[in-house]
Each structure stands twice: as structure tokens, then as C-alpha cells.
């Protein structure tokens, strides 16, 4: 292992196994994502751990294996995005790309072997009955009426299940283990289910599919995995993992080890909630730069090296904890600061005319692209002319005490240029400041004024005639509280998570590749949006600010006010001070939208990006107009519709003619917002609509996707989760309230289709009991 490789208990275990020549001195890990969504920052920790071990230990390898055992939720789109994310992080798998579906025939044979041993049986109980028979934390399970079914009959039924003779949910294959086990995972778990659903790889060959806990260990064995690394929620499943491998004649004997998953404050990582944000139009897709998905972080401008550094710094532990988002942001700053060129940009442009500078003259000033403390060198030319733009925040007509920027009668230095003095303020009829008339000192380009007077401040600027217009997107944290999972995340959305400015950048930007990252001096780190930015219509995303302003906000908590209150108070103060100037700038620089886009943005309240997309595509616009006609005055419904149209409908249009109509999409969105189905189920319904044109109501009924709110049905799930985590339950009851999010995540994972509010109430009641 490399001397510089990060050390942790997993790597220490592997070193012990290597020293003992266990597994013949081989080390084989795997990263096994389910292709049912986009990877997020939490997955990056597992990617870096598994692939990092293969990178650092000579001869070790890491497999990329897709756990594609649930065809209802999986898609080749997710397969492609996952591969792109892993490669973007800097890892490769060579020829070690596998799918659980590669082993369906072998896994089926293993199931028949269990039946032949009398250790598996076909059960006709419904899902609700199975949960009822399973017992509770304090009571053992009861045997299914089918538990002692003869081996020959079980084999016959199982083969008929495979042949497609039974309906979805009519029968399941269960392992026969121990109905009195404290670990409820061992109380005759289901290992095969019927799903008459098209699979993205095996097509319609199979109508029965193995469950994850049965597939996972067998796939590991078939691939000769030595160290199966899982996050802590799979700790209770290790007993079943071992039972399956010890019961069957398998080609190799891997072992499962658990480590703490990545939690991040000010962030939601639940795939269910991330999907809800997408479907409800809270964000503009899975790659919205505010999202914690790897595609979102990539689009925002984060670097893979910064994410790898973050994962290394948080380490690999045995107990769950929450990492600081500020640490991730620090890693990005640390990665970018010594590498990226500095440029000047103005986000709130205010016109400055230098009255003693010759009209028509332009001079090229030379400016260093990197500060002295950075090993990189380089320079660029800054055109200087009679008229400039400065930032509106750098001027006060009535400056407060200790204000060191421009004001009437005061001097400042223009960055890399001259000292100027404001002589006159020009306003329009409404009193808006529209122009500053200034005087420059031509002898101050190379140094301070000759008479020794001190210049209190320096501001940035761009030449009006040469600057490039740009849309600048200022991203902040999507949530305003540290733990947005404590309740409904929608209640904690930060209304200022995206602010759009129409400003200008210096012309040197045009000479560099579009994927160059910059430091806009005093403003932060930026790069061009890889999707929306075009030559002549530049769009910049703020990757991260220059420093962590949130740390100061948190400090205010010691003075009797919350960080959120301080944040809002500071922003209100700044807004009040600049209210008139901001209004003037908005009028002076209106959003440049065509008539159609303006109708969508101003009249219907859609975000600019959605408005522009619709106005530029007649087919999409016609589809949205028809669908939204049924949304009347419901802004939430209209916004969710727009998001579906510009993402999912747009994608389907690219692939061919739509098989569904606007009314059907409206019905689907209405059902989702009314919580009749989950956001995850909505995606599945849409896929069926796109494939067959079937009405969403019919799809929901046929697939049984209605959201479950019945407490009697959901309570056993809560009991099962708590039974599997006795230590965590004890810790919660001893005062560790932060564990509530862990319990809710485990419950929601097992209770797909369940009403999260009802589940949350049942969970709290059970924990307090």
C-alpha cells in the first residue's frame, strides 16, 4: 500500500488479511450502485474507498457492479450517469464491469438448491400478512401455513413462478431460517418475488427477480470479492449474508464489513427527497448546481480532486456522524486557489465617466493573472477607456463610517489601474443614480500618488466598450438550517439559494477555454455553465465564495440569536441600504427575454431557464400550454408541470413521437402533488406512459403504486427497523436525538410507497414508547 494512502480501520483489516495470506493474498472490492437514480456526494465516499483501495494496493482490483434486480425503478439513463460519475471522480474499472442480471440464471439455480435442502419454500401470504406473521421486537414470528410445504411441491411452484403462471405478489420464495431470531432479517425473509416488468438488460426473459439481500452475497461470491464493504444500514443484513453463503456450495467466501455512511449538514441526501425536489420543480433537474448529486456538483464547477480530498479528510469510521458542508467548500477553495487565474467582473454595473480621460482613447494595462503567493505565473491585458463600469456596491452617496470605497469627493484605486475621485453624481428624474463623473490621476498607474496622500480602498471595474456581458448565477446553500431532515425539508428551503445577476466580465475571458475556472476578484470562484453558456451569451456559475460567511453567522448563536436569524437580518440590512440602487439597476438592465419567454417568466412565474427552454421549442411550448391550461391559478402545479416538460418530456421528444398527451401528464403531476403516489412512483408511472401511452391512473392501479397511509400496515416496518438497530434505539432514548434521521431513512428504504408523514409519526411514537 502506498505510504501516502489514507489509513482507516478498513484498510487496517485488509492489511491484516494480506499479512495472513487470507484469500490467497488477493484483494477484490466492488462498488454496487442500484441504477435507479443519480449518485450524490454520499456515494462519493464509497467510490473513493472501494476504488481507492484498488488503486493503492498492488494487484488489488475493484469491480463496478450494477444491482439491477428491481426493473420497476431502473433505467439505462442511470447506468450511463453512474459510469460518468465514477470516471469523473478519477477511477476506472477496465474490464471489471458487471451487472447482477449477469447472474440471474446462477442465482435461480442457487434458489432451487435451497429448496432442495428444505431451506426455502414458496409462500402464498400477502405482503401485509408476511409482516404480521413476522412478529415484533418482543414476540417471535409465526410460521406461514406454507412453511412445511413438501420440497417437490415447492420446486414445482417455483418453476411455475418462473414460467409466468402467477400474478405479481401472488407468491414469493422465502428462506426458511429462524422465526425466533432477534435479528428480524432472519425470520424467513423473502428472496424471490414476481415482477411482470420489462428489464433494461434481460428484457422480458424473466418475470421473477431475486431480492437484494439474496443477490448481493451471491454476486460477491461469483465475482470472488474478498472484502464486501457496505454502509452501516446493512449491518443487520450481514447475518443473512453469512447464512446464504454458509448454506450453499458457493465458489468463494467473501466477507462483509460495514463503515459509516457520509452525512452532510445543510443537505438532504435521501434519494426520495431529491427526486421530490426535481419532480416538484424546487430545482431544475438532477444536475441543478444546488443539488448534492455528483452531476450537480460537476455542473456547478466542483473539481473531482476536491471531492476526493474531502472524502479523505472525513475518513472512514465505525459510527455515523455528520460532516460539515463548510469542509467540502474549503476543499474546493483549497483546490482552486493556487490554480485558477484572477479576472475582474462587475455584477451590479454602475457607469463611471472619467472626464479628464481623452475621448476615443484606449490603453492596454498589464495585470498579473496570479497573486505572488501562487507558484503559477501569467498576465493578461486589461483595456482601459473613458467609460467604465464599477460595482454598485462600491459606491455610497452617503457613506457610513469606515467606508473605504467610492463616495462623492473621495478617492479609490481601480484595481491594476489608476486612482480616481468622484466629482459628481448624476441621477434621473426619479432620483436614481445612473452615472458617476470622476477625475483620474494619470501619475498613479505604477504606484501611489506623488504627494504621499493615502488611498483608502481599491475597487474592481471593467471597460464599458470592451467588457463581455454575462449572466452570473450566485449559488448558496439550498437549505437554511443545519438539519433539513428534521421535519419536512420544504419548510427549510433557502429562498436566496440562487440569485441571478446581469453583469460584465473582462474580455480576457474570451481567450481561455470555456471550461476554465476563474477567481472573480473579491467575488468568488466561477466557471461557465457547461450547458447554458454559449459564445456571445455567457453564463457563469459561482462554484464557491472566497470564504465561509456562514461561520460568522453561526458565531452569532452565542449572542442569543440563531444563525438563520442573523443571516436574514444581515441580508435585510443590506437590502434596505441598497433598495433604491437595486431598483434602478433592475430598470436599467432588464432581463433580455423574447416575448414568449417573458410571458412564461413574468406572467406565469416560471424560472428564467425554464421560460427560455419553452420559448425556444415550439413542440414543448405547445405541450406545456395545453397541460397548464388545466392548472388554472395553481402556481405550484404549473411549476411542477414545467419541470416535467423541460426535462422528461423534452427527452422523450428527442427519442421520437410522444405516446401520451398533456392531459395525462397533468393527471400524473396532480396525483404526485396530492401525495396519492410518491415521487419515485411517479417516475415509474411516467416511464410506462412513455412506453405504452397508458393513462397514469390505470398504471398506478395495475402496478399497485398507491401511497400507503394505513398505520396497521406500516407499523410492522417500523418495528422491523428498530429491532435491527437495538444499540441505536438505546442511544436515541438516552438523548441522541440526531439518530432520528437514521431511523427515518431506514424505514423509508423498506417502506417504498409509504406516506412519509404517517411513517414519521409511527416512528416517533415507537421510539418514545
Characterization of the model:
With 769 residues, the chain is an alpha/beta fold. It contains 26 helices and 27 strands. Strands 12-25-26-27-23-24-13 form a 7-stranded mixed sheet. A 7-stranded mixed sheet has the order 21-18-19-20-14-17-22. Helix 2 crosses helix 11, helix 13 packs across helix 14 and helix 23 crosses helix 26. The longest helix is centred in the C-terminal third of the chain and has 21 residues. About 5% of the residues have low confidence.
How are the strands ordered across the major sheet?
12-25-26-27-23-24-13
Beta-strand content estimate: 15-25%
Average pLDDT: 87
How helix-rich are the residues, as a percent range?
25-40%
Q: Structural class of the secondary structure composition?
A: alpha/beta
The termini sit apart by 49 Å
- Global geometry: elongated
Radius of gyration, in angstroms, nearest whole number: 30 Å
How many H/I helices?
A: 26
Q: Major sheet, described briefly?
A: 7 strands, mixed
Unreliable spans are: 550-591
Q: List how many beta strands DSSP finds.
A: 27
